[in-house]
Request: fold
Amino acid sequence: MVTALALAQRGMHVTVLEAEATYDEKPRAATTHASTLDMLDGLGIGEEVVRQGLISRRFQHWDRVSGKLIAEFDFSVLGGETNHPYAVQCESHKTVNICAQSLTAFPDATLLHRHEVVGVGRDADHVWADCDTPHGKQRFTGDYLVGTDGARSIVRRLCDIDFAGYTFAERFVGLTTPFDFEAKFGYSNRNYFADPERFVLLFKVSGNDFKGLWRVISKDGMDEPDDVVLSEAKLQERLQYFWPNDTRYDIHYRGLYKFHQRVAAQFSKGRMFLAGDAAHVNNPMGGLGMNSGIHDGMELALLFDLIQSGKADAAILARYDRRRRPLNVEYVQQVTVANKHRLEEKDPVIRRERLDELGKIVADPVQHKAFLMRASLIDSVRKAGTID
Reply:
């Protein structure tokens, strides 16, 4: 949707083909980093994303075993580097809806729900997508096609592009609760708890009612059927294990996930392109996947605009692969894998070294800022500008 809005604002005809009747509101990506917020400002929606989200000015790393705070990172050190020296926890469905509303201002932009792409094709001059629709089979044609259709991307599959990488063996439990962990335990609204046996992530979003909702992600660690793992009794037991409390937790959502680290062998083939999860997937330790996907779309919009305006010919499109693929590997894949290893490290010596390193980084103003420049993908955006 961000890609579509960026194209429409540049005067291009754009059609969005969406398989579902509505966008899924299950908990998905939420963290929107400073570099992305700056881009959304350029589309005129940054302010609304901030309004509907929850500003996160700091995040914390904890040693869950000892209960000690290891490091607290403060985004204010990015002042002067970005218009948004913070992250925003804005649920992805809100960002989608904000984009959808903005798209209505452009008569050449069309959003079609219940249009499932079942086939794609291309020749030297154009592309097409065949869809199952409420009105039967339909074919849509255009100059270019961007597959933003997720980790199971049919566009990637039909383009015969390899999706190399791996899937983590363990399952992860995700749940939401309105319980106020900040008031009870003093946590920030983004927290990482290192534990060699059962690490856990805890962060807050504003929720549809803007009253606040906390998301908890933790390793399953049990070889039990899905319905047992997600039963009320097991989830209460899980939350009480992490955060003992006198009363039961009110659980709003529950789900099981598999996490992946994969990158497409190439992000384009002829007039077809991959962006977001269709091109790359990663674990959620760092909130980088959605941000990197938005950066993909913004790069494509810029390249298409250069061609449309006559400032470049189609050869410029090769820059998409040269920029986006290596940047994802360096700033998303490597960082999220390192984050996961830090949280789950079992060797006591290495574990202590990694946790102590975080404390040293925070204590050093230069290292502190450098860490957040990388974590917020500002470095990634700037490096992109150096790749022709």
Observations:
- The radius of gyration is 21 Å.
- Residues 239 and 249 are 8 Å apart (CA to CA).
- The domain at 2-167+260-383 is CATH 3.50.50.60 (FAD/NAD(P)-binding domain).
- The chain is about 35% helix and 25% strand.
